[in-house]
Amino acid sequence: MNTLTSCHGRSLNLSRPRIMGILNMTLDSFSDGGWFFNPDDALCQVKKMLAEGADIIDIGGESTRPGAGAVLVEEELARVIPLVERVRAESDVFISVDTSKAAVMREAVAAGADMINDVRALREHEALETAAALQTPVCLMHMQGEPRSMQHRPEYQDVVAEVKAFLDARISACEKAGIAREQMVIDPGFGFGKTLEHNLTLFRQLPDLQSSGCPILVGVSRKSMIGAVLNIPVQERMPASVALAGLAVWLGVAIIRTHNVRETFDAVNMCHAVANGHR
Question: Does this model's pTM top 0.85?
Answer without folding.
Answer: yes
